[in-house]
From TrEMBL:
One GO CC term on file: plasma membrane
UniProt source species: Paraburkholderia ginsengiterrae
Entries under Pfam families matching the protein: YitT_membrane
Superkingdom: Bacteria
Transmembrane segments: 21-39, 51-74, 86-103, 115-134
Subcellular location: Cell membrane
Protein name: YitT family protein
Cited InterPro entries: UPF0750_membrane, YitT
Topology in membrane: Multi-pass membrane protein
Length: 208
């Protein structure tokens, strides 16, 4: 009867190269902005970015190059386990985040930034960037590669895997940051992974 197919699912439309390119830039820009907020407030996060922050705070080395170096083993894992398209997009996104993270301080100057405000706002911005990248079959290397691999091949939610790793790394930073900053970082880690978990589920988005 007429109208019976009103709620029928629409056929999946694959992203074209132009859409993927724009998504990589936008996603990386958002993530790097969140990274800049975290860096300015002296916060911690999880994954390879968290390890890069630890090294950055202790040694003073720039976040971008350290972030790239830490991701090398994970990109090797992606080369062995993931598709060629995913590997290329992830490598591009990782390089873009590292580059943008060094550009933001040239254009943004913040006089005062509360740690908890930076944690929540930075987490929301980074999570949005992650979802954009995930929905275009890309990630930022590191734990994201392993989390997506487990989700796609074993049905384990990427957000839950990322949350477990992130919280562990943030707690391990107790000897680097103050208790208040650590508390704010934990709030940020939970907020970031909650947004990713709620917005990135298997079968919810089929535009890839």
């Amino acid at each position: 009867m007429p109208g019976d197919d009103v709620h029928a699912p629409l056929p999946a439309i694959r992203h074209c190269p132009y859409e993927d390119a724009v998504a990589l830039v936008v996603g990386a820009l958002l993530v790097s902005l969140g990274v800049n907020l975290y860096n300015h407030a002296g916060l911690m996060t999880g994954g390879t970015a968290g390890l890069a922050f630890l090294i950055h705070y202790v040694s003073g080395w720039a976040f971008g190059p350290v972030f790239l170096a830490i991701n090398v083993p994970f990109h090797y894992f992606a080369f062995r386990r993931m598709s060629r398209q995913f590997r290329i997009k992830t490598l591009c996104a990782t390089v873009l985040v590292a580059g943008f993270s060094m550009l933001h301080p040239r254009f943004i100057h913040i006089d005062r930034l509360d740690a908890f405000y930076a944690a929540v706002l930075g987490a929301a911005v980074m999570a949005t960037g992650f979802v954009v990248l995930f929905r275009h079959h890309a990630s930022l290397g590191g734990v994201h590669i392993v989390a997506l691999f487990l989700q796609e091949h074993h049905g384990i939610r990427a957000g839950k895997v990322q949350m477990a790793v992130d919280v562990s790394i943030v707690v391990a930073s107790l000897f680097v940051v103050s208790p208040r900053v650590l508390a704010a970082s934990l709030v940020g880690a939970l907020a970031l992974n909650l947004v990713v978990t709620l917005n990135h589920r298997p079968g919810r988005y089929v535009g890839m």
